[in-house]
Hints:
Low-confidence stretches: 97-108
Mean pLDDT: 87
Shape: globular
Amino acid sequence: MSAIDGQSCAPGELRVIVIDSQESAIYDAIVSVRSGPASLGNKSTAAQGSATFEKVPCGIWQIAVSKEGFQAGAKTVEITSGADVSVTVALDLSVQTSSVDVVAPPPPLEQSASQNSVLRPAEVMELPTNPATVNDTLPLVPGIVRTPDGELKIDGSGQERSAMVVNQSDITDPATGKFGQTIPVDAIENVNVLTTPFLAQYGRFTQSVVAVETRRGGEKWHAELNDPFPDLRVRSYHPRGIRNETPRGVFGGPLIPNRLYFISSLQYILDKVPSRTLGFPFNESKQESVNSFTQLDYILSDRQLLTATLHISPQHTNFVNPDYFNPQPTTPSYAQHNYVGTLAHHLGIFNGTLDSSVSVQRFNADVGAQGDAGMILTPQGNQGNYFGAQNRSANRTEWLEAWSLPPLKGLGTHLIKMGSSLTGSGDSGRFTYRPVSILDATGLLTERVDFTNLNPFNRSDLEVTAFVQDHWVLTPSFSVDYGARIEHQRLASSLRIGPRAGFSWSPFSDHRTVFRAGSGLFYDHLPLDIYTFGRYPLRTLTFFNPDGTVSGVPIPYINVIGSASGPRSFFVHGEEVAGAFSPRGVTVNLQAEHKFPKLVRVRAVYTDNSSLGLVVLETATFGSTNEIVLNGNGKSRYRQLEVTSSLTWKGDQLNLSYTRSNAQGNLNTFDTFLGNYPMPLVRPNLYSTLPADLPNRFLLWGHVNPHIWQLSMQPIVEYRNGFPYAKLDAMQNYVGTPYSGSSRYPNFFSADVRISRDFKVSPKYKVRLSLTTFNLTNHFNALAIHDNIADPSYGIFFGNYHRRYRGDFEVLF
């Protein structure tokens, strides 16, 4: 179909972003856009690697991109009425210098050792889950799941073992290493999830990297308002107040045409999340937040771009994750005030690019309880109030420099990138813990944990990193990515060297089949709460006889920060002193990918990650002193076979994935006892199947046009094993092997679908009405189990979200 001219279809805007195999912007590339005989002409990319075409008629357009030293690139895009479309074209190096003119299509698949999963707003915003932030989109990626308590697990592990960067700046909480509240989905260009990035520019992880790129305002003013009206809580077919109010909007355009651009996304969330294991009205978690992201882009010249961003995200949650075993009075409350500001400068220099950025971040958090009573643990569930309270103020200031050189000749072609960073961070605050009592099934007191609260803490850290990497194309069908990263973290008292290497090989002349393989040594970043452990409250255990008298002598424990066990290696340098941890992982990755001529793209990936030196917590005795020790002798292993397929036809797309995985490791990872919501009891540090292990998972999502009444349909279908669980006794100790394959929730199946239609109410305004159905088949997906053998209801699964419906109303203008 050629471009369409006519009053019935408003022209759109097309922004083409050109990057290289190392995800760096390519300056001064030539972009050509054509549709049959029609042409929008040629434009050169600016310092940020983009070229914008205004007033693009509706229809199918072919984009061709060329740059000296790179293979030509091409993509096809459809412009619908008034659409603002962004397309990323990745260019690979050519062995022989090509002409600046666009004369040939590109290889169908990227010739890079590192491949990622890409999520784009246009593909995910209309899904039934109605994602509002980057975090909400991540469960669409194979290997990432959300557990019943709302936590994201990546490759079977917590967020603290992965990195999240926005425009290359680290935005994780310096205290906990968690992602926190991420930016609104309306403000993102794309989300890249790299499970094995062989690019040395990425660090501070042993599992995955979530790299987010934000979008700038366009050449014309554009605004959207989503979900402006509240959803009512309906019980027994009668309204019972507001269930949630989640309006979000985005507004952007040129403050100075062709010079200064503005975009701002704002969300307000008032959500009363019900727990189906408790009865109304005492079953809700009440969440309120504001999430604002603003970006200004100032084009100083064709060679220079200045970008400033500000992310503000205050939020408050009362009754965090209530359920049958933790009713509202026993749950914590949480409040945070996060502020992240960045200033970035992009410069086209010597036919390459120099990227400089500074970010200043503040993370303030308060964790409280519903009252001052102690916490009581029983086989049937918990009573009293949550035991732990804390307030803290963390900060990070980061300076990044990265230089991407132009292609260099020498036994092929090289694309070299190097950079460095300097990061200062701090964390201060105070902990206050209250007693925890353990009762047996008859209500008799068997154990009490008392705490001695210490003085406030205040820790600071300084990190320095440097990297160099090279994408080396030896022949048109064979390329190598290799590089190294050096990291030094002052509190960890260690210098770490992380080499990485991988290759990509296209054995056939059509380049539709690519084999990739690689291996690398990666290091976790150590959040500051590890180094505040010495100031955590001290605990004393007291045991009781059935008649209520004290059994034996109370046992006091002290908190000790240990060190990494075992010898240092060539890649890790430093003294074995307290806190000298170097959690590291060796990852091996094998891939095969094939693109069929018309509709289908298939990729198979095998990943094996073995990690050592993880920070774990365990009890120990040193002479006559009882200790709770943070040690650096933990380990884990994650293996995954992933098969993904993307089917595209006539503007529709379905993404299918199947993962077969196994996650094992030490259970007492530091994040279980530190961070926002620590566990009150310290159990033995066993090596077992991890709580987020899912042997099998099938996922389907996408966009389908049923060609009926101008409707649009977005399905999400998921089928997987249930999560494993641990059996406990009346003293809250493990029974048998926790989280073994024999103790799992029933298999999970959910089919959700959203059906929507746009109505044009004026030349500038459209209204979108939609209806979403959740759990279409009404499958029983258990939310909880009575897992304590002293509980009379032991072994019974319960709680379920039945089939339900939601209506949405959006205004586009």
